[in-house]
Design goal:
Helix 3 links the parallel strand 1 and strand 2. Strands 3-2-1-4-5-7-6 form a seven-stranded mixed sheet, sandwiched between helices. The protein has nine helices and seven strands. The protein is globular, with a radius of gyration of 19 Å. The longest helix has 14 residues. By secondary structure, it is an alpha/beta fold. The N and C termini lie far apart (58 Å). The structure holds S-adenosylmethionine (SAM). S-adenosylmethionine binds next to strand 2.
C-alpha cells in the first residue's frame, strides 16, 4: 500500500489531510454501508417532510443525506448544509446541481452557526458530533435555530460498541480498547443522543439503532474495508497516541491483513438515531 492510498483517522481536520481525495472517497463509501442506509431511510420515514419546509444539515459532508431529504420538500423547499471542511462543501455543491429546491452548502462551525434563531423546521446532524470537542455547544446551536414546532434528527456512532476479530485475541483486545476509549473526543456519543436533546428542551419521539458488520475484505485490492479507515491509519493513530510502538506498526498491520486474506477478519460497529421534537409542555 502506498502512502497516497490512505488517510488520517477521522473527520476533525479534513482539509489538512494529505490525501483528502481518499478521505472524501471513504466518506462517500460510508453512505453505502447497510447500517447508514437503514438509518437514513428510517429518518426519512420518521420525518415525513412536506413541501416548503426548511432543512438544516450540520456537518453535512458530501450532502447526500440532505439532498435525499430535499426530494420531499418540493420546489418551495430550502436546504442549508454547513460543514467545517471547504473540500466537503465544494463536493456537496457539485452533488447539488440537480436538486429539486434551493440548496446551499456553506463552510461553517457546528458550534457557532451563522444562522438566525428559529429559522428551520428540521435540523439534522449525522456522524459529526463524535468529532466535536464540545458537542453540547452544537446541540444548543441546533436547538436555537429550530422553529418552535421544529424537530431535531441525530445519527451518530458509538465506538464503545466496536468489536474486531482477527484471530489474534491480544491484538483484537488492544484495538478494541483503543477504539472504545474517548480520548478527548465524544466517540461514544451515540448512546447519549436522547440525553443531549433532552438537555436543550427536546423530547425523543422515535429512536433506532443499526449495526454494521465488515467481512470479506481483500487488502490486496483495497487498503481499507469499504467505508472504513485503513489499518495503516489505525496503526499510525495508535503510535501517535503512544498505544503502539513505531517498530510494531508493520507487524500490526500485516497481522490484520493476513487474517483478512484467510477470511478471519470481521468488525462491527453500532450507530444510533433519534428524532426529537421540542418539548412544549413546560
Ligand atoms: C463523518 S463526516 C459525516 C458527514 C455527513 N454528515 C454524512 O453523514 O455523510 C463528519 C463531518 O463533520 C464535519 N465537521 C467536523 N467538525 C465540524 C465542525 N466543527 N463544524 C461543522 N462540521 C464539522 C467534517 O468536515 C465532516 O464532513
Amino acid at each position: 500500500m502506498s502512502s497516497g492510498e490512505t488517510h488520517g483517522l477521522g473527520y476533525h481536520r479534513v482539509d489538512g489531510d494529505p490525501n483528502v481525495a481518499v478521505l472524501l472517497a471513504t466518506m462517500s463509501a460510508t453512505a453505502e454501508l447497510d447500517a447508514i442506509r437503514e438509518l437514513r431511510q428510517w429518518e426519512r420515514s420518521q420525518l415525513r417532510l412536506g413541501p416548503g419546509l426548511r432543512l438544516l444539515d450540520v456537518g453535512c459532508g458530501l450532502g447526500e443525506a440532505a439532498l435525499a431529504l430535499a426530494q420531499d420538500l418540493g420546489a418551495g423547499g430550502d436546504v442549508v448544509g454547513i460543514d467545517r471542511s471547504a473540500e466537503m462543501v465544494r463536493a456537496a455543491g457539485a452533488n447539488a446541481r440537480s436538486a429539486p429546491c434551493r440548496v446551499r452548502f456553506v463552510v461553517g462551525d457546528a458550534c457557532a452557526l451563522d444562522l438566525a434563531d428559529e429559522s428551520f423546521d428540521v435540523v439534522r446532524c449525522e456522524r459529526t458530533l463524535q468529532w466535536l470537542a464540545d458537542p453540547t455547544a452544537a446541540i444548543a446551536e441546533m436547538a436555537r435555530v429550530a422553529r418552535p414546532h421544529g424537530r431535531m434528527s441525530l445519527i451518530d456512532t458509538d465506538w464503545s460498541t466496536f468489536a474486531i476479530d482477527v484471530a489474534d485475541d491480544v491484538l483484537a483486545a488492544r484495538v478494541r480498547t483503543a477504539m472504545r476509549t474517548e480520548r478527548g473526543r465524544p466517540s461514544n456519543i451515540g448512546r447519549r443522543l436522547s440525553d443531549l436533546v433532552r438537555d436543550v428542551g427536546f423530547e425523543t419521539i422515535a429512536s433506532r439503532e443499526a449495526t454494521h458488520t465488515w467481512t470479506s475484505w481483500n487488502p490486496h485490492e483495497s487498503p481499507a474495508p469499504s467505508g472504513c479507515f485503513s489499518m495503516r491509519s489505525l496503526a499510525d493513530d495508535l503510535v501517535e497516541r503512544g498505544e503502539l510502538a513505531a517498530e510494531e506498526c508493520d507487524a500490526f498491520v500485516e497481522t490484520i491483513h493476513a487474517a483478512a486474506l484467510r477470511n478471519e477478519f470481521s468488525m462491527t460497529l453500532t450507530m444510533f438515531a433519534v428524532v426529537a421534537a421540542r418539548d412544549n409542555r413546560s
